[in-house]
């Protein structure tokens, strides 16, 4: 009888130890994800004393991100440290996914809930993490061709040089025709402003939209020239205007004569 009791006691102790190991493993797994002790207690039903005893002295090695910023940094880090780096459109896609968007009633379109400062902070955080881990985070402009990065850069630089030279020629022509300033400083400032205005119209990178810029400058020049929009003159009578350009026919319409003879117009009335 004693042997049976001893065996049963040993089996009970073994089951209890296995159960304790399972409880400890579950608590430890949640702890390593970065979950707080309070949330671990709520998730497992264990006492706070038990949880504190299990996790005592165990550092968190894998904290899961919870904020849009931390989630973005985690995803951006993995892609930016690749050999081909991270393209701008990929970065913005991640931020758009994590931060979401909202409907702008004034513009009538959706806008992402992140801004330039968000992009700057995410890039800075990723670069710091990469430097700490001995890696290199690369953020690649969308225009670079991964199969020929140097050639694509040189081609665009040559295009910029050609456009710049042509723009200088156009500015010379503009100043020859439209510069009436006697001051050398005024001429220099006019040329600089003219060049800058053209670049804004081409790139759309000014502080205001191109359409707004065009409308605003048109109002300025119209005001200086004294021009106003001349309204279209309204005719005194609509019939007179029609008679002037579309005279009544002076020949018989045999189809209408036939209809009238058949009495169809009277039937319709």
Question: What would you say this structure looks like, in words?
Answer:
The chain is mainly alpha-helical and 269 residues long. Among the domains are: 2-55, no CATH class; 68-140, no CATH class; 238-268, no CATH class. The protein contains 12 helices and 4 strands. The strands form 2 sheets. A two-stranded parallel ribbon has the order 1-4. Strands 2-3 form a two-stranded antiparallel sheet. The chain starts with a helix and ends with a helix.
Short recap of the structure:
This protein has 269 residues and is mostly helical. Helix content is 66%, strand content 4%. Among the domains are: 2-55, no CATH class; 68-140, no CATH class; 238-268, no CATH class.
Assign an overall shape: elongated
Count all strands and give the number: 4
On the 0 to 100 scale, the average pLDDT is 81
Order of secondary-structure elements: HHHHEHEEHEHHHHHH
Low-confidence spans: pLDDT under 50, at least 5 residues? 235-249
> How many strands, what sense, and barrel or not for the largest sheet?
2 strands, parallel
Q: Given the structure, what is the number of helices? A: 12
Measured by DSSP, the beta-strand proportion falls in: under 5%
Please state the CA-atom Rg, rounded to the nearest Å: 39 Å
- Described by its quaternary structure, the protein is single chain
- Our measurement of the CA-to-CA distance between the termini, rounded to an integer number of angstroms, reads 119 Å
**How are the strands ordered across the major sheet?**
1-4
Question: In which range does the helix fraction lie?
Answer: 55-70%
In terms of structural class, how would the helical and strand content be classed?
mainly alpha
């Amino acid at each position: 009888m004693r042997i049976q009791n001893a065996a049963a006691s040993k089996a009970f102790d073994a089951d209890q130890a296995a159960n304790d190991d399972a409880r400890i493993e579950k608590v430890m797994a949640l702890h390593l994800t970065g979950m707080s002790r309070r949330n671990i207690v709520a998730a497992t039903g264990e006492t706070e004393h038990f949880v504190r005893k299990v996790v005592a002295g165990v550092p968190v090695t894998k904290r899961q991100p919870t904020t849009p910023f931390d989630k973005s940094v985690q995803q951006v880090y993995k892609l930016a440290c690749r050999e081909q780096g991270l393209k701008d459109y990929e970065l913005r896609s991640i931020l758009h996914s994590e931060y979401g968007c909202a409907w702008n009633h004034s513009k009538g379109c959706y806008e992402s809930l992140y801004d330039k400062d968000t992009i700057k902070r995410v890039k800075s955080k990723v670069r710091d993490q990469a430097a700490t881990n001995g890696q290199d985070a690369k953020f690649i402009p969308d225009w670079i061709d991964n199969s020929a990065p140097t050639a694509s850069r040189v081609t665009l630089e040559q295009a910029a040089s050609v456009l710049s030279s042509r723009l200088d020629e156009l500015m010379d022509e503009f100043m020859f025709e439209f510069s009436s300033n006697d001051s050398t400083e005024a001429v220099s400032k006019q040329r600089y402003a003219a060049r800058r205005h053209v670049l804004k119209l081409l790139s759309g990178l000014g502080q205001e939209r191109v359409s707004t810029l065009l409308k605003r400058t048109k109002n300025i020049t119209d005001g200086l020239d004294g021009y106003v929009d001349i309204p279209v003159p309204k005719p005194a009578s609509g019939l007179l205007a029609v008679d002037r350009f579309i005279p009544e026919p002076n020949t018989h319409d045999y189809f209408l004569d036939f209809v009238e003879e058949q009495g169809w117009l009277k039937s319709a009335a």
